[in-house]
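Exercise 7b. Backbone tokens:
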């Protein structure tokens, strides 16, 4: 059962990493769209969407860090290296 829990933690860390990359790309893309359409009607919505994606990126990075700490201090603490 411990093996399964460790694999689930590692899978969740990979999901958080991939989602972080997706959110980072979305934030950059929305920021570029805002820069292109600064004078347009939807310019503020691009900026808001970019901010939301950046916040989601930070949240996924924090989740990745928490999962890495769980993996290190719960499962790998007694490995002599």
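Sequence design result:
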């Amino acid at each position: 059962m411990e093996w399964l829990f460790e694999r689930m933690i590692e899978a969740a860390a990979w999901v958080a990493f991939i989602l972080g990359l997706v959110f980072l790309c979305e934030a950059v893309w929305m920021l570029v769209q805002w820069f292109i359409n600064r004078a347009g009607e939807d310019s503020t919505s691009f900026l808001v969407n970019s901010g939301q994606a950046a916040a989601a990126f930070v949240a996924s990075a924090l989740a990745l860090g928490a999962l890495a700490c769980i993996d290190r201090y719960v499962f790998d603490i007694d490995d002599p290296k």
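Instructor comment: Residues 27 and 54 are 5 Å apart (CA to CA). The longest helix spans residues 2-36.
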